Amino acid sequence: MSRKNQTLGEFIIENQQAFKYSSGELSRLINSIRLAAKVVNHEVNKAGLVDILGAAGDTNIQGEDQQKLDVYANKKFIQTLTKRNIVCGIASEEEDDFIAINSQDENHGNKYIVLIDPLDGSSNIDVNVSVGTIFSIYRRVTPVGTAVTIEDFLQKGSQQVAAGYIVYGTSTMIVYTTGHGVNGFTLNPAIGTFYLSHPNMEFPADGKIYSVNEGNYIHFPQGIKSYIKYCQMEEGDRPYTSRYIGSLVSDFHRNMIKGGIYIYPKSSKNYEGKLRLLYECNPMAFIAEQAKGKASDGFNRIMDIEPTELHQRVPFICGSRNMVDKAEEFMRNARTLNS
Ligand code: P6P
Q1: What are the pLDDT digits (tens) for 303-323?
Q2: Sequence-ordered alpha helix ranges (H) in 63-149
């Protein structure tokens, strides 16, 4: 249920009833992510002043230790989620192992875990290109009241209860799903409020944009090479346009609005691919499917992959479903030819 100019806070409350586990905990969890997003957004927007405020490792104008923004973002999300006693565990791209949160009443009463990529594409910060935060939320599978185990984190993407991203771009947006469609909220920085700006977001079934780092072309599997050549052929509505920002969240967001496909395949340089299953591919796949798009590793649905390691990587093809179908067709044909 949404209405024009609704704030994120109003939206969370009004849609809480629709969520089958609506105990209010998930609402509080999304609210804490909203708060952390505002804090990180403020710091990301100052990044251009690093020469004045001091680079990472120096002290900034306030005399505080200037931290790399991905380290800062990681700390802020973990602090916010921990202090508000909402989750029982957190995993992050910036942390080697998961973090068990001992709830104040020591019975680990909280039932949600969060996996985050606190600042994806952070290498773009220095060149003032947009970056993002990605989050994935599950219910724990081990008994409430005990400390979380790795089992709570190695769940299939199909078990997610919510997922979303924050894109720190020309404007800052939160885009998320709890399994009832995808909605986008834009921050009004003057008053620090997110407003519903993109209700019921959907991938167009087809698109004309393909996003892949063609600098790695010679290292790609044959099926991906053939699909890229297909995109570049003069036929029908092709050639398509190539757009690659080098920030997953930004490429995904543009493709969801305009129609397109994002590809990060395995290659002879990255044999398992580059993107992480648990806190990049699964949350983006959940959002894609809720927005009537598709997400695959080239052969299998991303959200059906059984995780084996916290930081495991997978090949990732995601976007308009007819485009992902076509890319998978090239992958299957190439496998048949090579078998
Ligand atoms: P490459 C950023 O490091 C990231 O994880 C994604 O956000 C982005 O799409 C990709 O890697 C860029 O990787 O190898 O093309 O520079």
Answers
A1: 999 999 999 999 999 999 999
A2: 69-83
194 and 221 housed in the same domain: no
Which range of residues forms the domain containing residue 104? 8-198
For ligand 1, the distance from its centroid to the CA atom of residue 212, given in whole angstroms, is 9
Same domain for 169 and 229, yes or no, is no
* Ligand 1 geometric centre to CA of 61 (Å): 31
The pTM of the whole model exceeds 0.85: yes
End-of-domain residue from the set 198, 229, 253: 198
Which ligand 1 atom minimizes the distance to the CA of 121? 2
Q: How far apart are the first and last CA of the chain?
A: 50
- Ligand 1: distance of its center to the CA of 286 in Å? 19
Q: Ligand 1 centre from 223 Cα, in Å?
A: 21
Omega before residue 199 within 30° of 0, cis: no
Report the chain (339 residues): mean pLDDT per 10 consecutive residues.
81 77 80 93 78 53 61 93 90 95 66 95 84 96 92 98 95 96 96 95 98 97 98 95 97 98 94 96 98 98 98 98 98 85
pLDDT for 255 equals: 98
With b meaning 16 or more CB within 10 Å and e meaning fewer, what string describes 219-251?
Answer: bbbebbbbbbebbeeeeeeeebeebbbebbbbb
Per-residue model confidence as pLDDT tens digits over 218-227: 999 999 999 9
Q: How many domains does the chain have?
A: 2
Pocket of ligand 1 (CB under 6 A): 120-121, 213, 246-248, 274-275
Give the residue, by CA position, lying nearest to ligand 1 atom 3: 121
277 exposed, middle or buried (CB, 10 Å; 0-12, 13-18, 19+)?
Answer: buried
* Same structural domain, 189 and 245: no
State whether 42 and 84 are in the same domain. Answer: yes
